[in-house]
Amino acid sequence: MPAAFDREVGACRATTSLPDRDRKGAQRTLFEALSHTMEGFLGKIRGKPRLTEKNIRDGLREVRLALLEADVHYRVVKGFIEAVTQRAVGEQVLRGVNPAQQIVKIVHDELERLMGPVDYEIQLGGDGPTVIMLAGLQGSGKTTSCAKLALYLKERLGCAPMLCAADVRRPAAMEQLEVLGRQLDVPVVSERGADAVTLSMKGRLQALEQHRNPLVLDTGGRLHIDEEMMAELREIADRVKPDYTYLVADARAGQDAVVSAQEFDRQLEFDGVILTNLDGDARGGAALSIKAVTGKQIKFVGLGEKLDKFEPFHPDRMADRILGMGDVVSLVEKAQDVIEEEDAQRLEEKLRKATFDLEDFRKQIRTLRKMGPLRDILGYLPFVGNKIDELEFDEKEVDRVEAIINSMTVEERRYPQVIGASRRSRIADGCGTDPRQVSQLLKQFKQMKKLMRKMTRGDMGAWADALPQDLTGVETAIPQGLPGKVKRKRKRNRRRK
């Protein structure tokens, strides 16, 4: 490894070892940080009629630093940069009409290759229940991931899962899984005083007798890998013969998670990885390192504490988000989970006929809130997700908007044009706000209807025009289509001395 690269690795490790890394006042996830760096790299080469090897290497140096800072394994970083450079400086790219677009394609392909391919299918069938065993270190999120996986299988595949609490060493591990099982209405096999192997066998037998499929098996972990733990896991695997064995790893652990995965793979063959806390910290380098180092694919990811914050891992969609292309497919899937088909058709008809009113807007606010925080939803949108740190959000504004609409009469919600000065004062008094905020909401709603009319008439450029690259119109475009206050952070003007 070159000396310069070695110095960069050491400098980035020193930076990431700080206890509370604070970037611009808030932590960024791995993918937000990389997206920001990728945007800067692509901005430098965009518009150049011809690229040289020096242009590409200088730009990729920033990408390399961002990867190292995110605690991606240095061998993975080196291989990724070399692969991109080798393809980017080829004859075809140098003679291309639009080099920046070709570089985007190359980087996207390499990111997808690094994390992919897509493989999260779980095949259910056979004579008995399909057994899925989760293993990992203590504190990695195994027990919660068991419940999340059971909920995913229950809702997405229509299964009747069963949980088995075979973690007999961690205090309250059984109680935790029992509580989660009651929340999900999923039966849990547990027995105080029993050993892990006996409990696992009992779980398989009860799943067979009660016709439950699959059986999700929680196992014990340690703060570090030791022979006693691995011997217990191997015995469970030999006796129960799980169809799938997943390693649960914490994305916040960075390279430590990769080292643990290597050791688990050496002593206990596993089929894939469930990566938890992927949304929680910038040191998420495990997402880009585990597949390359261990050869094991990431199957599922945990994106929050709630039990429904669990989804299959799509390398192509993640590569899109890193490069600022958004993830519209995932956003549509989230919307489908909370929007009924009849409601969607009714809304489409109202938009087409321009009869969309504040009553409908209030319903959309409530639907949108079911999909998650506004910041998360914006992260899925093209041109916005990679600039998320340039915006600041007041999630409480969602409550304020809904309160204003709630203070209106049915007539006022259906016909906002009847709201005059006296009505604005009454509405403001009813929700404890100012008449000017009522006026602002009515103005934004009117602008939103104009934008929607353009889009329903086939003018899809209206949305793109509202979201230019420099986010000039975001403060007006976003609130029109989404509840919540979004505004640009003001840069402080430095006084000239």
Strand order of the largest sheet: 3-2-4-1-5-6-7-8
Number of strand segments: 10
How many helix segments?
23
CATH superfamily of the largest domain, called what? P-loop containing nucleotide triphosphate hydrolases
- Largest sheet entry: 8 strands, mixed
Provide the residue-averaged pLDDT. 76
Decide which structural class fits the backbone. Answer: alpha/beta
What is the beta-strand fraction?
5-15%
Q: Approximately how much helix is present in the residues?
A: 40-55%
CATH class of the largest domain: Alpha Beta
Query: How far is the first residue's CA from the last residue's CA?
Result: 46 Å
Radius of gyration equals 26 Å
Q: Could you say what the CATH architecture of the largest domain is?
A: 3-Layer(aba) Sandwich
